[in-house]
Amino acid sequence: MTGDREPIGVIGVGWVGLVTAACFAELGHRVVARDILQQKVDSLSRGEVTIHEPGLGELVARNAGRLTFTTDMGELLDAARLLFVCVDTPPTRSGDADLSRVRAVIEELPEGSEHVLVMKSTVPAGTGQSIRRDRPRLPYVSCPEFLKEGSAVEDFLHPDRVVIGADSDHEAAGDAVARLYEPLGGEIVRTDVASAEMIKLASNAFLATKISFVNEIANVCEEVGADVAEVARGMGLDRRIGPAFLRAGIGYGGSCFPKDVSALKMLAGNSGYHFQLLNAVIEVNELQKRRVVGKLQKHLGSLLGKRVALLGLAFKPQTDDMREASSLVLAARLEGEGAEVVAYDPVAGDPARQLLDTVEFRDSPLEALEGADAAVLVTEWPEFAELDWSAAAERMARPLLVDGRNFLDAAMLRNAGFEYEGIGRAIEGSVPAGTPE
Question: Cα(first)–Cα(last) distance of the chain, in Å?
Fold first, then answer.
């Protein structure tokens, strides 16, 4: 797409910021993106995209003429009126969102500024009100992101909806942001700032709840001999429920769900409300990661001295993101039981090495499986479905696989010589609990 459209400023060039900048450039806007890290700015100015996100590198290269990266806030303010804030808001030790980076951005804006501050970062409901209390003349719009790692470019350019929160005295600022998104065709939801902030937290908390719910169902299925894949399929055909996020596994991770669920729980608690459901969602998710260790012990007995291969380390496929990845908990628990852990991931190897310094890393799945007493499929990378599992069985000391994502065909694995166990799927030949033998 081409055209001379309103310049846009992006503050913070992490994953959300870079996707936002590149996609707006694709829509024909000149974009000035500012980050405080000179090394990152220099790399992006050379066209080097180190974030693993399908299509993002190509988008940056194609729109290089419209993209400017800088550390100079003055250059950004001179170039653009609409400023999209995409800085990180990680959880503090208390579980609250750390808004220090957001506050630092506000402090850099000159008094009396007529720039429109568009909050793309995930912040607790009430943040906009707090900012406006300190800077009442600053036009403020909440525009939360709903991007999924691994499909962020597609999500931005073809959104389900775009949420724009602007209070009554700043409706014109909301209108300006809405015009940017109109070419994308998604439904534009206009609301107040606090409701827009809450929509983001509530959406992620609900999706996390669906995941924890189906994982609880999976655990019951194992006890009664049901197959959670069939149960979820039957549930998902009900239009009131839908099939999305009903895939049992070893829990959610990443940069959004754990942080946003915790932030909403703390927001409720700080307001005097005990959000019991979210407490359960968090607890189920943490316990689910540890159930894999119990499955291994059921087959192997003590894990002391056993060699366990982890296939996949990133929290989901098509990303190298290790934040809150299940593999981190699994590796620690396995090593705590005395096991030797070896691992392979096609993309996340380098960031994982910085976090798992006692784990052995291999360059292919077959190398990781060599001599292993068991394997755990942690991340459903497509290449694992294409692996020669008969050859893999021959390399292992004991061909035992726990499929933590119910990704592989159980019959195929058993035909290849594996002992196979999924999540919430009755083991072949087992007797359901409570059934007379």
Answer: 67
**187 conformational bin, left if phi > 0, alpha if psi -120 to 50, beta if neither:** beta
Cα distance between residue 262 and residue 282, in whole Å = 8
pLDDT for 434 equals 39
pLDDT at residue 433 is higher than 90: no
User: Going from the N-terminus, what domains does the chain have, and what CATH number goes with each?
Assistant: 5-191 (3.40.50.720), 204-421 (3.40.50.720)
**121, 125, 130, 131 alpha-carbon torsion, rounded to 10°:** 20
**How many residues belong to the chain?**
437
Residue 147 Cα to chain centre, angstroms: 9
256 annotated active-site: yes
Nearest Cα to 123, choosing from 207, 193, 36? 193
331-390: per-residue pLDDT in tens?
999 999 999 999 999 999 999 999 999 999 999 999 999 999 999 999 999 999 999 999
DSSP 166-227: --GGGHHHHHHHHHHHGGG-PEEEEE-HHHHHHHHHHHHHHHHHHHHHHHHHHHHHHHHT-B
**CB–CB of 126/194 below 8 Å?**
yes
pLDDT tens for 162-190 read 999 999 889 999 999 999 999 999 999 99
Catalytic option among 23, 86, 221, 256: 256
**Which of 210, 291, 289 is closest to 244 using CA atoms?**
210
CA 414 → CA 204, 213, 409, 428, distances in Å? 37, 29, 9, 10
On the CB side of 299, CA atoms within 13 Å amount to: 20
Q: Does the model's pTM come out above 0.85?
A: yes
Q: Which pLDDT belongs to residue 302? A: 97
